[in-house]
Write a structure and sequence with these properties.
mainly alpha
């Protein structure tokens, strides 16, 4: 068996698991990947409203409110914005964090965004009164990114 066919079997198994996940966890993965992709590509946005620009427009208002409140906390807890952590403005915190992420080496940035995606998915799961543990989040986010997002590009 070749490595490629072995990996294809693994991805097929993960796909079947993903499709059996509760809708809340599928949505958490979708939102997390959309936000991290936005962080990766956003440039020169005005600071005001940056969090709103990151969050996909077609998600539930309850989740948007939750993310508006918690995304800056996640970024601050990652120590990306230690210099301005005294700021209380969520958009300013988020804009500063995005600049730091975008200045990272591409390999480091990819790994960092993957981990950030899992953290965001965990927050979205919380907003829907469900939980997503770290190890499951890693697989779900990677599968979603590789097989849902990349196939749309």
């Amino acid at each position: 068996m070749s490595l490629k066919s072995f990996l294809s079997q693994i991805w097929a198994h993960i796909k079947s698991i993903f499709e059996k996940l509760p809708n809340e966890l599928q949505l958490a993965a979708q939102i997390a990947v959309a936000i991290t992709q936005s962080i990766k590509t956003l440039t020169n946005l005005p600071v005001a409203g940056i969090i709103t620009a990151l969050i996909p427009g077609d998600i539930d208002d309850k989740i948007k409110i939750w993310l508006n409140q918690h995304l800056p906390d996640v970024l601050t807890s990652l120590r990306l914005v230690e210099v301005i952590s005294e700021s209380k403005d969520p958009d300013e915190i988020t804009a500063s964090a995005i600049k730091i992420i975008q200045s990272m080496d591409k390999n480091i940035q990819g790994a960092f965004l993957h981990d950030l995606g899992v953290l965001i998915a965990q927050e979205v799961a919380k907003a829907q009164n469900t939980t997503l543990n770290w190890s499951d989040g890693i697989y779900i986010i990677e599968w979603y990114y590789q097989h849902k997002l990349k196939t749309q590009e």
